[in-house]
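hey can u run this one w/ 2-acetamido-2-deoxy-beta-D-glucopyranose bound, need the structure tokens asap thx
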Amino acid sequence: AVPAGWAVSWHPGYPSMHSKWRDMLLGTNRSVLFFGNRGFLGFRSLYLDEYRDRLFIGGKDVLYSLLLDGASMDAKEIYWPPLPGQTEECFQKGKDPGTDCANYIRVLHPYNRTHLLACGTGAFHPVCAFVYVGHRGEVGHLDPTSVETGRGRCPHEPSRAFASTIIGGELYAGLTADFLGHDPGIFRSTGTRSALRTEVDQRLLNDPKFVAAHLIPDNNDRDNDKAYFFFTEKVVEADSKEHTIVSRVARVCVNDAGGQRVLVNKWSTFNKARLVCSIPGPGGIDTHFDELEDVFLLRTKDGKSPEIYALFSTISHVFQGSAVCVYRMADIREVFNGPFAHQESPHHRWGAYESRVPYPRPGVCPSKTTNQPRRQYGTTKDFPDEVLHFARAHPLMYKVVYPRHRRPLLVKTDLPHRLRQLVVDRVEAEDGQHDVLFLGTDAGSVLKVVVLQKTSLAMTEEVILEELQVFKAPVPITQMEISVKRQTLYVGSSLGVAQVRLHQCETYGTACAECCLARDPYCAWDGTACTRYQPSGKRRYRRQDVRHSNPVHQCLDQNLTGESVEEKVLYGAEDNSTFLECVPRSPQASVQWFVQRPPDEQRDEVKTDERILQTEHGLLFRKLHRHDAGVYYCKTLEHGFTQTVAKTALEVIASEQLAHTFSQERGDEALRLPCPRPWLAPQAPKTWFKDIMHLISSQNVRRVEEYCARLWCGSSRPHHHKSKLAQAKHALAGVDVGKKGRTTKAHSEKNRVPRQAVAT
Ligand SMILES: *[C@@H]1O[C@H](CO)[C@@H](O)[C@H](O)[C@H]1NC(C)=O
Ligand SMILES: *[C@@H]1O[C@H](CO)[C@@H](O)[C@H](O)[C@H]1NC(C)=O
Ligand SMILES: *[C@@H]1O[C@H](CO)[C@@H](O)[C@H](O)[C@H]1NC(C)=O
Ligand SMILES: *[C@@H]1O[C@H](CO)[C@@H](O)[C@H](O)[C@H]1NC(C)=O
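ok here u go:
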């Protein structure tokens, strides 16, 4: 069924979006673009087309094409539901018509200069079709004559993990290719080469969960091109009892044609190896991160040696954590060139195969090297049966692939959420290159992290630069795409797709030191503001020190603290609780509180105890004493740089003072209420009474109003209208409301607390 108000189009004429969507699409903030609403979009796939400047989004029964130039909003959609008979059958086979029996578009790849290949689950009847997108994405229609079965190209299930990539007009896909999800394989289809798949054999693939597929060429000889698959699978090797699942990298030759008599229409060059990502644990037993969550290839210019960033999590119930390991192609190739894993019989241990390996060595692609005058192996169909038999019996390499420096780049065990997605941006900063990691959680947020190498290679320091709450609801982030060109990150979840800027330098504050302490490699102080660092920039006052963040050194001639801290005034009732707010701009900073009490000018450090608590967000007085009155300074310390972040004058209203006021009759002229101390009066904002309002939460609004007016020396009549007082009654915060405007601003500047995107 088509949702009400939705413009349906099958082939010609793609109407503009429903107005409701348009509002959500552009949102009110340019920094966050929101697309989709709860349960409707059914987001499953994303293809960022930098050339056409479009984002193609695969949803539930719909494929969207979105122009990324925000100024001229343009979105098209292609409605592509399953055939009615298929929906019916899906329903009858016991699948949920609401969630399963639709066409979830999961495969979305550029195919050639004019077409995309799109495949959907088709209500458990996978379908594929070519979608015309023109040279500039101008039209966008699905070629009805190209619709064909998507079996072996797209999973049946709307949410099961799979991976695919297009190489030379062929789709390479790792997935389970049947209704029940029992037939896993790596498949090649679509183009002119022969269709191939892996044999159904647990030694090859044992309940795999595919994560990524990529073409990584070996050298300039295209005949050596290989497709790599990253996945987890169950272990069959007998002697690795402690690992029920492991992560793998597997590869096949792009020019594999299968065997002639053995392995007909099956891969003859398939090999796999284990990816290890572990940290030393107690008692010499390593803690392994075995569950592969995501893989990101940081491509190099030649394309042959990308750095492989892999995100893992533990499967242990005892220890929860995530880790990022980085693998080098040289190490992966070395393992594939090393010994094969071998087992004499099911009773023997696995070992390295040490006898003669037949020629051409299994896993080697037919190329100039194998096609010599005396040994003509122009295609895998020419390979001797002996080679194919050996390949079939030895899919696994004996050695394992270790990450760079043999340890994770990043380990996170203290996070409340699991990390699910990873993209990496290599950023040019003044002190060299830095890799910034964007990590999507299962709770709708994205962490932006930079990992800094310390002087010794074995030491790293990670800095969480930002935590962006992209979706209000705690949904898992399912896909992220980075546009270096647009300096934007596109984040997908079941609720939709959001757009987030890679950097928001201006949020780091208005002082050189703050910009420096942020240690964001994207940002630098240009003499007047914290702005995007341009490596080639000619601007002079560049101050940036990502590695050490020493503001004293970097900002010597600059104003260290930026705007001077304004004094806030806070009134607290004696014996009541009160709260002095102070959140450091940087989570790495340590906070110290000082107090200056009126008679002596000396500043003392605030002594905390069970009555006065120092919390993450400020200083909490559980029970205010008269002698607590004074000026409080919140100072942060980071890398030897101290900064006063907040200055609050705390005024304590004695309990008899309050009691006295309420005992007074209305209209009594003989008031003898003390004035606030003179040193407070000039700054005292006129709305301070709201503080008292919520503190005493009196039922008698008029009395409070009166009390406030009296306490506010120099004013005998209430300043504020009833409505305001009524509002004040609902004021919640125990913090200084008087300078609300400024407090709020400070909040939005901080940005270390989750940034809120448009609600879902
Ligand atoms: C959204 O836009 C408004 C108005 O331009 C701005 O005040 C607010 O800070 C923005 N919010 C975010 C999260 O960027
Ligand atoms: C792209 O592929 C489609 C589907 O095979 C085909 O119809 C179209 O002509 C191709 N376009 C180009 C420019 O090769
Ligand atoms: C430092 O601050 C003062 C006053 O706030 C201002 O006049 C001056 O221009 C600032 N200097 C720099 C280098 O920003
Ligand atoms: C706060 O002050 C009000 C009014 O003086 C009083 O009734 C209330 O008990 C106090 N609350 C605490 C927690 O001391």
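The two ends are 23 Å apart (CA to CA). anyway lmk if its weird
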